[in-house]
User: Fold this.
Amino acid sequence: MTDDLKRQIAELEASLSQPLPEPVRRLVEQQLAQLRQQRDSLVNLSGAQTGDVTIGDMAGGDMRSGTVEVGDQARVYGPTVGINLGKIIYGRDPSADERRRLVWYLHALAGDLRRLPLRGLDPALADGRGVDLGTVYVLLATTNDERLAAGRHSQLRAYFTDDALSQPAPAYDPELVLPTTALLGRSVTNGDMYEGDQLVQAGSPDDPAVVLNRAQAATEALWTGRRLALLGDPGGGKSTFLRHLAWTLARRGLDQPGSETQLLGWDDARQALPVILPLRQLAGALAAANAGAQTVYQALRERMVAYGVDRPDDLLTDALVRGAAIVLLDGLDEVPQAASAVAADRRTTLEAVRAFADRYAAVQLVLTCRTRAFDDDLRACLGWPVATLAPFTLGQVRHFVPAWYRELVVVGQLTAAQSERLSVELVAIIAGSERLRAMAATPLLLTLMALLLFRRGSLPRDRPRLYEEILELLLGQWDKVRDGQSLAEVIGRPDWTSERLRPLLDRLSYEAHLAGSSLDGRGQLERGRVRDALIDFFEAAQVPEPWGAARRCLDYFEQRSGLLAPDGPDSYVFAHLTLQEHCAGRHLLLSRDAVRQVLARRAEDRWREPILLGLGVIQVSNPYLVEKVLRTLIGPRENGADKPKARWYRDLILAAEIGTDRDWAYLREQEVDVAGLQADLCCGLVALLGDNAQPLPTAERVRAGFLLGELGDPRVPVTPDDWRREVARALAGDTSGYFCRVAAGTYWIGSADDEPDAEDTEKPRHAVTFDAPFYIARYPVTNAQWAAWAAQGERPAPYADDTDLNRPNQPVVSLRWEVCNDFCAWLSGQTDSELRLPTEAEWEAAARGGDTRRYPWGDDWRDEHAASAENQESRGWIWSVPVGCFPVGAAPCGALDMVGNVWEWTADAWQSYPGADKPFTDEDERVIRGGGYGNNRTNVRCGARDGYHLDDGDINYGFRLVLAPRLAHLS
Assistant:
């Protein structure tokens, strides 16, 4: 057993003797159990003959010391390794040579991936053994969900602290535990279901059947199919996920103790040959010789050669053909949008990947990309299932922070007591600040926060300020902390601060980001160009011996601060893309023509982050420049001419995102004209959502809808005064407002016998006549509208804490029928009018108009006309969307979202139509209409109907209002 392992166990045992918060104590106990298991595994192997290979740092994680010597037989502590994976790859026992080359590759890959890449963030931790990836890695979740449990209400009490099943128990609280254990949401179901092999029968009103959901792990999303596009925000953990996956699979291939339990959702015995390929590298290869699938193969081969496998073709080919490989394609967003002499464009790169996938149909492939860069064209070109990484929860933060600081104990940077104190302090700071919670939802920012608290004892509350402080440390303060020389002292100007060098660094970053020529999007800086720029800078600043100062400065950047890293014999790259983006943004916004610079770069998704960061830097000293940028983006004209509609709409979205990122409230405190900006922005976003030409793809319209909701969606009345105004408009004949007029007359209800997908309950088709017009709401009732009632102490809003469902202009859901009627009664009293649920006939008449169309827009299905399961991926959001995002899906009367988005309660009991072959009625059930965001086109029809118990409140049930005479059975 190694001394490091002994020390870790002793330190954790000592920690448990101290008073600890319960969540921290549980984490310490879990870590201690893992280390003890490692100790026992080593003890069991200690008597074996060493043979040809001794493992230590070879695979990282478990054993932290020792030597690595790979001999002819590829043995580790006696047992031959690589034999199991070798059998899978070759379909037989591998030869000694085949086994050796496999072990060499796996050993080199695991060793390369073992350490968390920190060179550009903390040189002190990056030096030496470094921070262990396996120790600090926290399971990542996607925005998809999985079933956690199902049963009767009475059977699920243990998951909650209360009888109403509203507050999760600590073991299932997302504030405390990982997302795959945490309760994500619950829904009541009306039918029988299975929990495993156990039948759960439909419940009663007093004891309904309930489904509990949790988040899906990223590894689970990967396990379900052979192809996956994994999306995430900058710093969201995409590349780290691939590194951890490849590291774990490499250790499995080497038969490392404990490696079989690392991947949630995977068969513990599954082995595969991992190969990571940066897509930027593939794009470069395609620019030189676009041979499609063969170029992809050659790029993978070169990756294996780089890990010391001199003849990899048989190993790689057999693994690909037999489906024994997993190919991890990282960073599509770092491939340029337009082709150049040095790199193919994204579409060309994806076409090559798709051709490779077709050639090797059995192989598993994963591709990562920033969410915003994966547009509809790329999505359609690739055609793979898509999963999106979810932001870190507080439960994930609670797991990461203690693991991080414990690792600093292992590398000698902290004592156990200091680690414990910093863990408790950082978690408490994050939990107590909404802004810091939002920042900690990004794994990279959480890592930076942990670093800064460790180094400086305090945390900035803003993302650009966080990067500023990291850069200050990298530009000389790390060594000051250790009583060494600062960069200023190295240069020979001890009176300088880091600010004196920032303009040069910013310009170099800007040029690097323009080029974006390295494998992962960091721009290569030619060594001579950097040296000459430093010489010119020091000459202008009258630094003595500028040549020598430039050489010393370069040495400091490369060898001590880690800010720049060599990238070949004659070039540098920034050690971390995020710092390059930050400095490039500073240069952009601190230039004389900052607004013009922003406009010139705004269409390129790889410049979005630099623009946001640069605006954050200048906001403190010049908030009016932020206002000028916003006003220029919001305006419909540019350079004296109207902007093209798609360009203006995207400018509006960017402006709204900038305002949110820079904090509208803070801008208001800085005397920026926030009221005027937001008013113009809202008008523009309303025009965007109402444009029937739909120049933007669905995902961007949905994003615009969410942003409009955060600003205060003017399309929906919220206050009683708003409602009274809209009622008056409708009664005065104005059909452009919230209520849509449905004329008196005869309408067809139900489905024809020969209509595809029609259920028997929809038949027979029959006519109904309305003697007077009525007015139906243009949209379902939203969370903001419901909250106005809830704020008066009437009823709490369902899913009030669920960010997937509680956005202001999403439809309010999970409502019982009677509660919807209570809202209508309250609102009727506020407006001196009759507002109620529509009857089933009123609903269908409004949806169909005067003919028998299948959908509100006509007879043919259109994915872009309604939120449904048919366009779940293209809309970029699996839940309900803001109301009114599909203007071309409008009903003849003008009402939107009549089908899709959410099912809608009606006033009627569930019963058969007149003349039905098998009449039925159920007074305990009410009719729901329209289909929801998770339903396919079968349910998303004008004629589709279903009945649900009036006490159910499903996650997919909402409602809309009609302005019409009161119904007799509601009197």
